Amino acid sequence: MSELETAMGMIIDVFDKYSGSEGNKQTLTKGELKTLLEKELPNFLSSGKDKEAVDKLFKGLDENGDSEVDFNEFVIFVAAMTCCCHKYFEQKGPK
């Protein structure tokens, strides 16, 4: 598989790894999202346990208001984070 195909598969695998432990296998609950962030993006939250930040992020991701983050909502988050990282490293530039 190409690098992009591998990356896409990894995104699916990460979502599947954390979804469903508290219910619906097709979505992430707030608790599942918090665990995912702590394990997969440990530097994203300053303390890794910042409840207010998780609540705010969850509310922003849950576009349809069903109190769960589905795969489409999760992919939008991953894409937005990737864009932010790209912009950060682009601005930092070579020294």
From TrEMBL:
InterPro entries: EF-hand-dom_pair, EF_hand_dom, S-100_dom, S100/CaBP7/8-like_CS, S100_Ca-bd_sub
Matching Gene3D superfamilies: EF-hand
One example GO MF annotation: calcium-dependent protein binding
Domain EF-hand: 49-84
Keywords from the named record: Calcium, Metal-binding, Repeat
One GO BP: endothelial cell migration
Gene Ontology cellular component terms for the protein in this record: cytoplasm; extracellular exosome
Keyword flag RNA-binding: no
A Pfam match: S_100
The name this protein goes by in its record: EF-hand domain-containing protein
Species assigned in the record: Gopherus agassizii (Agassiz's desert tortoise)
